[in-house]
Design brief:
The structure holds 2 protein chains of 2 kinds. Chain A has a domain of about 150 residues: Immunoglobulin-like (Sandwich), CATH 2.60.40. In chain A, about 15% of the residues lie in helices and about 35% in strands. In chain A, the strands form 4 sheets. In chain A, strands 12-11-14-19-16-17 form a 6-stranded mixed β-sheet. A 5-stranded mixed β-sheet of chain A has the order 1-5-10-9-7. In chain A, strands 2, 3, 4, 6 and 8 form a 5-stranded mixed β-sheet that branches. In chain A, strand 16 and strand 17 form a beta hairpin. The longest helix of chain A is centred in the first third of the chain and has 12 residues. Chain A is globular, with a radius of gyration of 21 Å. Chain B folds into 2 domains: about 80 residues, Immunoglobulin-like, CATH 2.60.40; about 250 residues. In chain B, about 60% of the residues lie in helices and about 15% in strands. Chain B has 11 helices and 8 strands. In chain B, strands 3, 4, 5, 7 and 8 form a 5-stranded antiparallel β-sheet that branches. In chain B, helix 3 crosses helix 8, helix 7 packs parallel to helix 9 and helix 8 packs antiparallel against helix 11. The N and C termini of chain B lie far apart (about 75 Å). The chains are: A mainly beta, B alpha+beta. Chains A and B meet through helix 2 and strand 4 of A and strand 3 and strand 4 of B.
């Protein structure tokens, strides 16, 4: 019964014209030979965007080496964590790797990545922690890591300016095969990001070199189901215009695999926009309103009771909300174009009796 | 000194076949060892998709596409108006020169523009535009009749009307008859230019492998020479009736092209065929009838010849509207039009020769003021009546 009601929901929200078509293909799984139905070893949830709208087929997440469902909650508190003079030190190992990523079913993007994934590892720490990033450039091009945070000029991860001493500008671009350790104290608390700052900047960003940098306040935030979403996009034909939009890289990933949350469960969503080429990106959640903390640098919301916000590139913030009624709820960019080009997902709000593996 | 050639000479057939054998060996060696792989190993694939035909029906779009590039193309996704959309194709991988039918269910909006973009597995994009969405005519009896009627007005009506000047042409004296022939040359020159340009325009849509543009010129030249040769072989004398038939054939092929263009444009919703446009075509093509009648003005062919001439010159327009409306294929359009251009050039040559010989016989300048006026008038009529249909 449940899958029927889901389908009804999707029918209601998909283009009415599509239904009017009454297409013989509509709703049928067989008979099409789209891109390979990649190994979804995470189990089927009975909904695939390809049934009604969106991209055909599924991405082979195993081949990519990361699953968008994991990226949501994959908070990395350090590859090596220890105390030094009463300060917590969190060491991370970052390797820039050139890698082909399947960003939408059947579409392969020649990406540049940190640690083979887009977005790169989500750095999670508490304000005042010492952060040490051991960066190795295994890519063909020179790269850097530029953190949005407060730190010295030497650790800013930008290209060097000729004639300037190290402490004024840092090591510059880390050449292919070279390495460097970025080191600083994590501050201020908030929802931040890092990205490569090599030139040409546009290309180094849109090729995939970015990730989340989340600094918790010393006084903890209330417990919640925490999610990280990086709004990104890919220009697959390199014409300065994106063909694929997403959160966490894979088009329609959370339509195929809805994000499960409980009724009345507080959700804290760390949302970051790194979309290249378009001036802004946005999020709209269906049938619920949220409080918003711009940049996450305050403990009080900067915006209350809204259901849509927009962010320019590198702008980010925290959304807090909870759903009171079970059901399937869309969330997507409210630039309809971005939504239909992949930046769309579903929350599966489950009541008391619902099984998490239905 | 003499060398015995007997012992050294290879049998003729061996000498003839040896290069072929060596060529086969070389090709096999190349394919098996790929000695020049260094040039291809690191190069990204060259992908190319060409649209051959797009059908809009109440299910959505149907695109007939061909892989016109050197490498295989794998279709990964399809966008319609910047949105990922479902699609269906027998095989998503198209080999070189393999064609496929891509079906995209879509609620297209009548009278508005749409863009379908095919994205390959490498992320390359191939946009195909629907300039104005209208349902592609279905091949039923009513539509067949409608398109036939269209071709009838474009082709047969003007040619018949033009031929009806024949009795008048018979009454005028020789000098004015040459004027009429010069006028015919003028209009034929216009038609030749027009046909070649039309062919070149369509040649741009032909997959690169088939070399559309060179094909236009090569086919035109080959046709011209072939008809000249055939004409010489079968028509040693100077049968003016035969010449009239050749003119009718050339004009017929031109009208086939015109029918193709109008039929295809109408089917694609690019033009609305108001009465004005159809009247324009009738006026534009009426001179063609004069052109056919002029060479036989001094003779007295039987009536059935005129019927046949009208059918030969005008009938292909009907064929053209059918093909253009229901099964347009740029490659075949280019072939027909180029043959048409060659045929027209051949009759330009023949009619000019007619004027030349007549002038020699009467010992006057062939390029007289009167003849030149006829030539220019022929071109001018075609040029200005083309305003009505451009």
């Amino acid at each position: 019964m449940k899958s029927v009601s889901r389908r009804n929901f999707l029918f209601g929200s998909a283009s009415a014209g599509l239904i009017a078509l009454g297409s013989r293909i509509l709703g049928s799984d067989g008979g099409t030979t789209g891109p390979a139905q990649g190994g979804d070893d995470y189990g089927s949830h009975g909904i695939h965007s390809g049934d009604l709208f969106g991209a055909m087929g599924e991405v082979d997440h195993e081949r990519n080496g990361f699953h968008p469902r994991d990226i949501l909650t994959d908070f990395n508190y350090g590859d090596n964590v220890y105390e030094d003079n009463g300060q917590t030190v969190r060491e991370y190992n970052f390797v820039a790797i050139d890698k082909e990523i399947e960003i939408a079913p059947g579409i392969f993007f020649p990406a540049w990545t940190y640690n083979g994934r887009i977005p790169g590892p989500t750095i999670r720490c508490t304000e005042g922690d010492r952060i040490r990033i051991n960066f190795v450039n295994a890519g063909v091009h020179p790269h850097t890591i530029h953190f949005h945070g407060i730190h010295s000029a030497a650790m800013d991860g930008v290209p060097a300016m000729p004639g300037m001493p190290f402490d004024m500008v840092g090591p510059g671009m880390i050449q292919s095969g070279d390495s460097f350790t970025y080191e600083f104290d994590a501050r201020p608390f908030g929802c931040h990001l890092y990205h490569c700052h090599s030139i040409p900047l546009k290309r180094h960003i849109h090729k995939g070199l970015y990730g989340a940098f989340i600094v918790d306040p010393p006084e903890e935030r209330p417990p919640a189901k925490e999610l990280m979403m990086m709004m990104n996009a890919f220009d697959t034909n390199f014409d300065g215009d994106n063909e694929v939009y997403a959160v966490n890289s894979i088009a329609f990933a959370y339509v195929n695999d809805p994000i499960q949350i409980g009724v009345d469960e507080l959700v804290r969503l760390y949302l970051i926009n790194i979309t290249e080429f378009d001036p802004i990106n946005s999020i709209h959640i269906h049938a619920e309103f949220f409080d918003y903390y711009d940049h996450g640098t305050t403990l009080e919301p900067t915006l209350r009771t809204v259901d849509t916000i927009m962010q320019t590139q590198a702008q980010r913030g925290i959304l807090e909300f909870s759903y009171g009624i079970p059901g399937m709820y869309m969330f997507h960019a409210h630039q309809s174009e971005f939504a239909e080009l992949g930046w769309m997902g579903m929350f599966h709000v489950m009541g008391e009796g619902d099984s998490h593996d239905s | 000194m003499t060398v015995s050639t007997e012992t050294r000479k290879l049998p003729t057939w061996v000498a003839g076949i040896l290069p072929v054998i060596l060529l086969i060996v070389l090709v096999l060696l190349f394919l098996n060892t790929d000695p020049l792989s260094v040039f291809t190993d690191s190069a990204p694939p060259v992908e190319e998709l060409t649209l051959q035909r797009m059908i809009l029906d109440d299910e959505g779009f149907e695109l007939h596409i061909i892989n016109s590039g050197p490498d295989p193309v794998t279709i990964a996704q399809v966008l319609v108006d910047d949105a990922y959309w479902r699609f269906d194709i027998e095989d998503t991988e198209l080999e070189r020169l393999e064609s496929g039918v891509l079906r995209v269910p879509y609620p297209w909006v009548e009278g508005e523009a749409h863009e379908i973009v095919v994205i390959t597995n490498s992320g390359a994009t191939f946009p195909f535009e629907v300039e104005v969405a209208v349902a592609t005519p279905e091949t039923d009896a009513t539509q067949f009749r409608n398109y036939a009627l269209l071709g009838f007005f474009i082709g047969i009506v003007p040619v018949v009307l033009g031929l009806m000047w024949y009795p008048f042409l018979r009454t005028i004296d020789r000098r004015w008859l040459n004027f009429a022939l010069a006028l015919t040359v003028g209009l034929l020159v216009f038609l030749a230019v027009d046909t070649i340009l039309e062919a070149l325009e369509i040649a741009a849509e032909v997959p690169g492998t088939f070399q559309g543009e060179p094909l236009v010129f090569l086919l035109t030249i080959v046709t011209l020479l072939a008809i000249l040769a055939v004409g010489d072989a079968f028509n040693a004398g100077d049968s003016r009736l035969f010449l009239a038939y050749m003119i009718a054939l050339g004009i017929g092929l031109h009208n086939l092209g015109e029918g193709l263009a109008v039929g295809a444009a109408f089917a694609l919703g690019q033009i609305s065929l108001g009465s004005f446009l159809v009247v324009g075509f009738t006026l534009h093509n009426i001179t063609e009838g004069i052109g056919i009648a002029a060479p036989v003005a001094s003779q007295r062919p039987r009536l059935y010849h005129f019927v046949l001439l009208a059918l030969l010159a005008g009938g292909p327009a009907i064929l053209g509207t059918w093909i253009g409306g229901f099964a347009f294929n740029p490659l075949w359009a280019v072939v027909f039009l180029s043959i048409g251009a060659g045929a027209i050039l051949q009759v330009v040559y023949e009619v000019s020769r007619l004027i030349l010989r007549d002038s020699q016989r009467r010992d006057v300048e062939p390029v007289s003021v009167l003849n030149l006026s006829g030539f220019v008038l022929g071109i001018a009529i075609m040029y200005f009546t083309a305003f009505l249909v451009a």
